[in-house]
Amino acid sequence: MFIDEFSFDHPNNQGSGKWNRLVPLAQSEPAFSLLEKQFLKGWKHPKKTKPQVRAIFKILSSEASLKPYHQYRSNPANEQLLFHGTNRCCMLAEDGTRIRLCSLSECFLCGVIRNSFDIRKCGTKNKFRRFGTGIYTTSCSSSKLYSIFDVEADDYALNIERSSRLRVLLVNRVVVGKPYKRRQNAVNLTEPPCGHHSVLGEPGVDLNYEETVVYDNDAIRPAYLIVYGDGVPELHSKMHSLLMALFKTPVAS
Ligand SMILES: [Zn+2]
């Protein structure tokens, strides 16, 4: 019988459960270097220096949550690992000991790790939805990403908890199937165009960075959490950026 490697029930995940969903990957594990490579390759923002990957956690889920994903995946396939940035209001994954999800309703990160994505929350905060009502992911780790929660893949606003020193990004398994490629916005979409399973926004006209949108909750599951950054306190970083912007000159750290 097939048991997903992200399932609580997989033999490698003994001791995991709904209170223990995050498993740190050792740096020696092949998955760590593959994800690190993908993260750094996807860092395309010319003005942001490539950050250091500090840790990667595997995200485990229940069989009940994974089963509908498997059923969906068995048809269109073309599974890809894609990034999604969201609000973090707690100190989850700030270090190896902080692996308990919080229960703050505004902490979307913990919500997604606990219950995966929910299309009904699309546009909750930002009414602008480039490709309509869907779940937004990207191969570009540094891009500005309008997601179901109106957040960016990498942005200082990501951390609501001010003492955070590091940032986090979700890596998701996404069933892309046959994507419909599009360069212009299509804000009224609620499903992919006929004969397709997702929309792939290509850079050029309305986009600067690639985006992949799926329109079914079961087309996506969170798989990994990448923790990255220079370890500088958030507040300090913000002040630093502000001073840089004001004087248009580098300031000493
Ligand atoms: Zn949280």
Automatic annotation (TrEMBL):
GO molecular function terms attached to this record: NAD+ poly-ADP-ribosyltransferase activity; NAD+-protein mono-ADP-ribosyltransferase activity
GO cellular component: nucleus
Span of the signal peptide: none
Pfam families: PARP
Stretches assigned to the PARP catalytic domain: 36-228
Protein name: PARP catalytic domain-containing protein
Species this protein is from: Crucibulum laeve
